Amino acid sequence: MDVTLTAFTLTAFRSLRWRGNLLATMRHRQRILEPLGYTVRYLWQHKFNGQRVSRICIASKDDREFFVHNQQAEFYRKLHGVQGSIPRIAKIERQIEGVTLIERAKGDLLWHFDSPPVAAVVEDQLLEFAAATTLNGLIHADIRPWNIFLDSKQNLTVIDWSQAHFYGDNIDLQPTHHESAADKSLKINQIDTDAAHRVGRLIRREITIQEMGHGRMNWSPSWCRNVEPEATG
Question: Which residues contact 19 (CB under 8 A, 6 or more apart)?
């Protein structure tokens, strides 16, 4: 009984803390954006397995819509400087007091497109994207179906840079969060390319979503989390 009560209390505490953090984030974004004429709202979408809910903050102004982020302000500042040479990304519009506005990607999230005929189109565009990130000393590190939009003309846009990292010339850096021996052999500049191929295999139904994530349903990409981000001068 005590164990059950403790587990319940811990779950309730975590839920309250999560809600408190969400409300604080919402208020912060509204405080920054609404005086500048932006309307702020949230979209709630189920993850691919129907069990998790993803919240997307949207800011609207003058018939334009933007994704809103307020983390990794320094990273987004640096990404803004190289975004012109990286295809397939949702462009950064501006930053305001740490809040970053990114153009809203058109289309639907990729997990709605599970038909094998689109696999080659998606994989080719992701490989183009991965090649460009490598040339710019950058890793997205989170290429997976629920971070990819595909429009009606099969143009692809990659979103969600929360795991991204500028690694510069340090390509010998090896990730530490792999869950298979094969993955541990990858160098850091190979992770986006590897993920692009795995997305293609997933759409072709050669692997399952669990296999794509090496057995983890709520898959987090292979990534070296114990390395400090490159300094941005």
Answer: none
Burial 81-117, CB ≥16 within 10 A → b, else e = ebbeebebbbebbebeeebbbbbbbebebbbebeeee
Q: Which two tokens stand for residue 75?
A: 């990273």
User: And the tokens for 102?
Assistant: 């990114």
pLDDT in tens, the chain (233 residues): 455 556 556 566 566 676 677 778 888 899 999 999 999 998 876 554 444 556 788 999 999 999 998 778 888 999 999 999 999 999 999 999 889 999 998 888 776 555 667 888 999 999 999 999 989 988 888 888 878 888 888 899 998 888 888 887 665 555 544 333 345 567 777 888 988 998 888 888 888 766 776 544 444 433 323 333 333 32
Alpha helix (H) residue ranges in the chain: 2-33, 73-82, 119-135, 181-184, 191-203, 209-212
- The residue type found at 212 is M
CA neighbor of 98 nearest in space, from 150, 33, 42 = 33
Task: Say which residue the tokens 């993955």 belong to.
Answer: 183
Structural domains of the chain in order of their starting residue, each with its CATH number: 2-103 (no CATH), 108-212 (1.10.510.10)
- Owner of token pair 């987004």: 76
C-alpha distances in Å from residue 98, one per residue of 68, 70, 195, 233: 10, 6, 30, 17
Stated pTM of the model: 0.75
